[in-house]
């Protein structure tokens, strides 16, 4: 059971997964997937919806069964019921074995924005201005970016057996440092990952720049390739 993420960061991961599938190294035939989030108001025919993204970037190229794909509906007539049903589906699948995460410049994971309580399960989120501005690059204008989304909550994410967080770029360096060494606080949602028992953070050297500048060298902790 995989928890999957969208956005520019996981695109490289999706390419590797497709390549491994095409080379016969892996199969998705027994995979069940749950995506982190979806915009409110966008359906699968919108090229900015996350269901559209996942089909284009991964699902259409591999052998995952369509009824094993789970993404919250952003056009449900009952958003609260949609959230409850998503949690039920995750439990029925046995929980998430590996959750893939990106991270926002404000420290959000999924669409869990700063100041949201850590105990939230799948829920309706109002997007921060910083998130809207960051995601505007995918739309024709900032005005077209949805202001709300359905997101797995921190509680749901933290129940995953293993978490892999990906980040790249200098603009994420301060956030990554605070995530690893800062106080655990809802103002930086990703900081809660400090207390998860099995988290791997994979970042490029630019995103790691503050870690490398401000922490002692430890070959058992930070690996540079």
Account of the 3D structure:
The protein is of the alpha/beta class. The protein contains seven helices and nine strands; from the N terminus they run βαββαβαββαβαβαβα. The strands form two sheets. Strands 4-2-1-5-8-9 form a six-stranded parallel beta sheet, covered by helices on one side. Strands 3-7-6 form a three-stranded antiparallel beta sheet, covered by helices on one side. α6 links the parallel β8 and β9. It starts with a strand and ends in an 11-residue tail after the last helix.
Notable characteristics:
225 residues; alpha/beta; 6-stranded parallel β-sheet; 3-stranded antiparallel β-sheet
Number of strands: 9
Uncertain stretches = none
If you average the pLDDT, what whole number results? Answer: 91
What is the overall shape?
globular
> First CA to last CA: what distance?
29 Å
- Biggest β-sheet description: 6 strands, parallel
Q: What oligomeric state do these chains adopt? A: single chain
Radius of gyration: 17 Å
Number of helices: 7
Strand order of the largest sheet: 4-2-1-5-8-9
* Strand percent estimate: 15-25%
Secondary-structure element order, N to C: EHEEHEHEEHEHEHEH
Share in helix: 25-40%
């Amino acid at each position: 059971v995989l928890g999957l993420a969208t956005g520019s960061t996981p695109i490289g991961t999706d390419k590797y997964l497709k390549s491994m599938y095409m080379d016969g190294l892996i199969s998705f035939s027994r995979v069940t997937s749950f995506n982190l989030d979806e915009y409110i108001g966008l359906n699968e025919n919108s090229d900015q919806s996350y269901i559209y993204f996942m089909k284009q970037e991964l699902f259409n190229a591999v052998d995952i069964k369509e009824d094993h794909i789970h993404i919250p509906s952003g056009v449900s007539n009952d958003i609260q019921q949609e959230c409850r049903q998503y949690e039920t589906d995750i439990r029925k699948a046995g929980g998430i074995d590996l959750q893939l995460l990106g991270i926002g410049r404000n420290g959000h994971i999924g669409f869990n924005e700063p100041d949201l309580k850590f105990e939230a399960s799948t829920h309706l989120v109002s997007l921060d201005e910083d998130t809207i501005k960051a995601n505007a690059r995918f739309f024709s204008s900032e005005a077209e970016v949805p202001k709300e989304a359905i997101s797995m909550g921190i509680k749901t994410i933290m129940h995953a057996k293993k978490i892999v967080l990906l980040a790249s770029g200098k603009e994420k360096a301060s956030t990554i440092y605070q995530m690893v060494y800062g106080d655990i606080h809802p103002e930086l949602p990703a900081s809660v990952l400090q207390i998860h028992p099995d988290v791997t953070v994979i970042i490029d050297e630019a995103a790691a720049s503050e870690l490398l500048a401000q922490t002692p060298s430890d070959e058992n902790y930070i690996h540079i390739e």
